[in-house]
Amino acid sequence: MGTSLDQVDDLRSWLELVNELGELKVVEGAHWDLEIGAASDVNYRRTSPSALLFDRVVGYPQGARVLSGSMSNARRLGLTLRLGTDLDDRALVQALRSKPNQWIENAPRYRARVVDSGPVLENVDHADAVDLLRFPVPRWHEGDGGRYIGTGCAVFTTDPNTGEVNAGAYRMQVQDDGRAVSVNIEAGKHGAMHVREWFAKEGRAPVTASLGQDPLLLIVAGTEVPRDLSELDYAGAVLGRPVDIIRGEVTGLPIPATAEIAVEGWLYPDRKADEGPFGEWTGYYSGGSEQILTMDVERVYHRNDPILLGAPPGKPPHDYSYMRSVMKSAMIHDALVSTGLAGLEGVWAHEVGGGRQLLAVSVHQRYAGHARQAGHLTAQLPAAAYMNKLVIVVDGDVDPRSLNDVMWAVCTRTEPGRDIDVQRYTWGSRVDPLREPGAPPYNTRAVIDACRPFERLAGFPRVAETSRELRDRVLAKWPDALG
């Protein structure tokens, strides 16, 4: 009997099913210093990347493993979202239509469930025994300033006043020869807001982080879930059952009960260490080295033979760029529907922009100004506002997923002097390679109207391409030659 989708409840059962589907490759003998990262980078650039499980890492015992490429194709991402095990790109996009809104609506029914024990408690190291380098933590990129244990992670913080839990995917660099770890949180993220509130109230902030878990938790930690909603509850809605958590011994914050590795400790305003540089999702070593808040690690929890979940960014395509593109596209689509925008055909957050910087929106124009409305709404939606730079609005006959078709529309339907609007002082990022060192993380973004002029819809030149009916006819006539 094989593993069924409803039996997947942790990273190990996820791997069992992925292996049964022929989607997993095991790599033995790689070195933690650059070789794991380089092999992962080569893999991402294949047409349909496999999940790579690194074992027998140089200097480490068999069983101390690192996973990368977990969700870099449609089949594994569909599996992780519990939508099916045989989805291709188009079927995955269709299956996700309206799902984010449903998950948000249903999340309160699936609040995380506190349990007394779980596999993550198989080993518990106290502060005097903490050594994060006992795990095969990679140095992922040649220009990285250190070894990053937190790339495919879920970092948990709470609101000190309400107890609201947030999970974010923030990069974490090993510090102090394995005794500490820095947590690099963007100032505008929910986790950073929680930390500032704890500092103001208590002078320190509690944090836990899962470093290997069901990849679903990486998805929800890495996407914009509404602030008043716990990512754990959102994950429960995706699963159709609550996520089991334990409470940390020191802080009481949640830790997934089936996590492979987790850390717990405190952040202090004056406890910082040099962090970076790091190859970021923009494709650059952005930001150099900075003083970043560093956790005093009080506990390390881990299973026997633990698996570190890696999701290193870099020049797209990278480990999670495909996942982010799909998830952001679905969330932005649902958010636009919620605004009441008419005529929406589709949305795609292009992988070349890391799933954030280049957004294409396809609409069937209903009235003068419709295209601009769609573009400006998209540019500032909470699900889309962080770090986007280009929002391109195209007609309903243009596939927003095809970068070739989108740029063809820009070239043939955009009058630059009239059809490009610029928004200034918008929500940027410290990792933007264009940001001057020390400058506030603003950015500027353009809304490009690549639709036919509304007043010329009836008389605009016809597109010179084969009709769908004729294309289907010749495909049926010569299937072997034309695929």
Automatic annotation (TrEMBL):
<feature type="domain" description="3-octaprenyl-4-hydroxybenzoate carboxy-lyase-like N-terminal">
    <location>
        <begin position="15"/>
        <end position="95"/>
    </location>
</feature>
<keyword id="KW-0456">Lyase</keyword>
<dbReference type="Pfam" id="PF01977">
    <property type="entry name" value="UbiD"/>
</dbReference>
<protein>
    <submittedName>
        <fullName>UbiD family decarboxylase</fullName>
        <ecNumber>4.1.1.-</ecNumber>
    </submittedName>
</protein>
<dbReference type="InterPro" id="IPR002830">
    <property type="entry name" value="UbiD"/>
</dbReference>
<dbReference type="GO" id="GO:0016829">
    <property type="term" value="F:lyase activity"/>
</dbReference>
<dbReference type="Pfam" id="PF20696">
    <property type="entry name" value="UbiD_C"/>
</dbReference>
<dbReference type="InterPro" id="IPR049383">
    <property type="entry name" value="UbiD-like_N"/>
</dbReference>
<dbReference type="InterPro" id="IPR049381">
    <property type="entry name" value="UbiD-like_C"/>
</dbReference>
<dbReference type="InterPro" id="IPR048304">
    <property type="entry name" value="UbiD_Rift_dom"/>
</dbReference>
<dbReference type="Pfam" id="PF20695">
    <property type="entry name" value="UbiD_N"/>
</dbReference>
<feature type="domain" description="3-octaprenyl-4-hydroxybenzoate carboxy-lyase-like Rift-related">
    <location>
        <begin position="115"/>
        <end position="316"/>
    </location>
</feature>
<feature type="domain" description="3-octaprenyl-4-hydroxybenzoate carboxy-lyase-like C-terminal">
    <location>
        <begin position="322"/>
        <end position="450"/>
    </location>
</feature>
